[in-house]
Write the structure tokens for this entry.
Amino acid sequence: MAGNIQNGPTLSVKERDRRYSSIRQRLREKGADCAVVAGSNLFYLSNGVKGELFGILPADDKPLTVIVNRRHLIDISPRVLLDAQDWVSDVKPGSDASAVVEKLKELHLEKGTIGLAGGIDYRFYSRLQSTLSGAKIVDVSDIFIDVRTIKSGEENAIIDQANRVFDAAIERVHEVARPGMTGKQVVQEAIRAMWDAGGDLESTLSFNFGPVPAQNPILAEICMTRKVEKGDIGTLTAHAHYCGYAGHSDQEISFGEPKPVHQEMFKAVIAIREAVLKEVREGATQRDLIDAYQKACKESGFKSSPHSQIHQYGIDVPEFPGLSYRIADTKPDAGGLGGAGNFVLKSGMIYSISPTVVNKDGGDTLLGGTSLIVTENGYRDHGERKVEMLVAG
């Protein structure tokens, strides 16, 4: 994560301690002496240390240790890294499992129970097994998934800001994108706007466009070298980032007056989204939301799509809820749940809700929506962007 914060919200040490307390309690309940993590689970514990590779969180009160790419510490003191942030007080250089093994031995866990979570490959696992043959290695990924499912107030503020970063990109694209520009040029304008709004340097978006609207990562890549033409419909999907958290939603923009069919379809998008939002509250289920989506699509005369954007996210896009929130699907033959399966909504879950509408002939695809947090009685929106089809040029 490369930050570009401009007086926006940040995560406190109190938030760090809340996370550590929750994770440690569950580690102890599972009989694990520590968690060895990588990827976004490491970020969740460290708040992003430059060059981080692995982390070791003891189940007791010993501090988190972060293994940093050894090349980052060749010509500077670790103190430089420690003084640059306030979440991590112990960093060690390394490049593979050997640095983790050394730390585990230092913690006297050669015969302990070691939990693994996230982004650990077979070579790493094999190295732990061979060098710590007396240790028991267990999977604790479920602990991190469960704890990360519900976002704190501080996390929600960060995600709200990440969505406002994307809103700035939409405003810039609406102002400057015109027929004759390549997809790459439009995306570059959007990225600059997100940087100007304080977004992380990793902030980007996908941009599909053409006379037949669609949303697909492969098509978005192809569109990078194409030129926008009058009459095209552009679909922008956010991968904005702020303090390592995502802002994720979708926006349609027409280059010239949209065709009547596209106007009709987007009116359906708005109506269908409203039908889904009526179901959003603590205690509802993912099946309730998908049922509302499919029913509203049918009533609109347009088709639903398994690609409809009704999912959770946070640090990662998407994020699926932990096992403690999962329940059986009451309508397994109805489909539409995707990889998340069925689960109960709880206050603090983050959603991107951008229903997808497919034309009767199966060609044109439109979607639109914003991000929200589930509350006890409903939901609260992120950002201030209105769900509408914009017209440029």
About this structure: The first strand starts at residue 34 and ends at 37. The first helix runs from residue 13 to 30. Residues 109 and 185 are 53 Å apart (CA to CA).
